[in-house]
Amino acid sequence: QSYKNFEFIIVLDNPGNKELDSIIENYCKRDIRIRYFINEKNIGLVKSLNKALSYAKGDFIARMDADDVSLPNRFGKQISFMGNHPDIDFMGARCINIDEKGHELYRDSSIPQDMKLISSCLENVDFINHPTWFFKKQCSDKLHGYRQIPCAEDYDFLLRLITNGFKLSNTNEFLVKYRIRKNSISSSNSLQQLLYSKRSEER
Questions:
Q1: Which three-class secondary structure state does DSSP give residue 142?
Q2: How much is the pTM?
Q3: ∠ CA(107), CA(114), CA(203), 5° rounding?
Q4: What does the pLDDT profile of the chain (203 residues) look like in tens digits?
C-alpha cells in the first residue's frame, strides 16, 4: 500500500491449516505491522470478524477477505476521502471483479455517493461490496460489531449504521479486485440472502 501507517490484523479460523499458518508466520517475521491471531477452533465468519474488530487499535477499519486484492492506492485514497469529508463515517468503493485465476471478468457499475440515494438503494439491495468497506472504528463500537445474520451480516451492518445516524458515502474509484469463485458464499447463498432481505423489509 502507498499509505504505510496501518496494522494488518489476520484471524485464522481454521487452526488445523498448518500450511497457511506457516505462511502467515513467515510474513509476520518480515513485517511488524502484522498482528496474527489463531482461533482455538472454527467459530465462523461473524465471530472472527468481531474478534478482529476488538483487536483493532486504529481510528479506521479497512475490511478485507483473504482472496481479494486491495489495489496499492486503496488505503491512501480512502484515508484522503475521509479526511476531506470529516462528516462521513463510512465509505465503499467500486470493484474490478476477477475470476479464480485473477483474470478480469467485469467492472462494477457506478454507485451512488449521496446519503439519501444510498439509503434509498439499500432498501432494496446490498450494493456496497464488503471488501471495499472503510469506516471509523466508532461505527463498529457503537453497533457492537456484526450480528449473526446468516449470509447477510454485512447488509445488516449497513442498515444498522443508517438507523443509528451514521453518514455513508462512496467513491466511484476502483480500489479492490473482488474474486468471484464458483463456490463462493455470496453466490451459493444468493437466494437465501434475498429471502433475508425480504424478511427485513416485512419487519
A1: helix
A2: 0.87
A3: 90
A4: 999 999 999 999 999 999 999 999 999 999 999 999 999 999 999 999 999 999 999 999 999 888 899 999 999 999 999 999 999 999 999 999 999 999 999 999 999 999 999 999 998 889 999 999 999 999 999 999 999 998 899 999 999 999 999 999 999 999 999 999 876 644 444 444 444 444 444 44
* Separation CA 38–CA 12 (nearest Å): 5
8 Å CB contact between 197 and 152: yes
Given its phi and psi angles, is residue 79 left (phi above 0), alpha (psi -120 to 50 degrees) or beta? alpha
Nearest CA to 51 out of 59, 41, 83 is that of 41
Report residue 118 CA to chain centroid gap: 17
How big is the chain by its Cα radius of gyration, in Å? 17
Q: CB 147: neighbour CB atoms within 10 A?
A: 13
- Contacts for 52-58: CB closer than 8 Å, 24+ residues apart: 52/9, 52/11, 53/137, 53/140, 53/145, 54/145, 55/9, 56/7, 56/9, 56/137, 57/7, 58/6, 58/7, 58/137
Cell numbers placing 156: 445488516
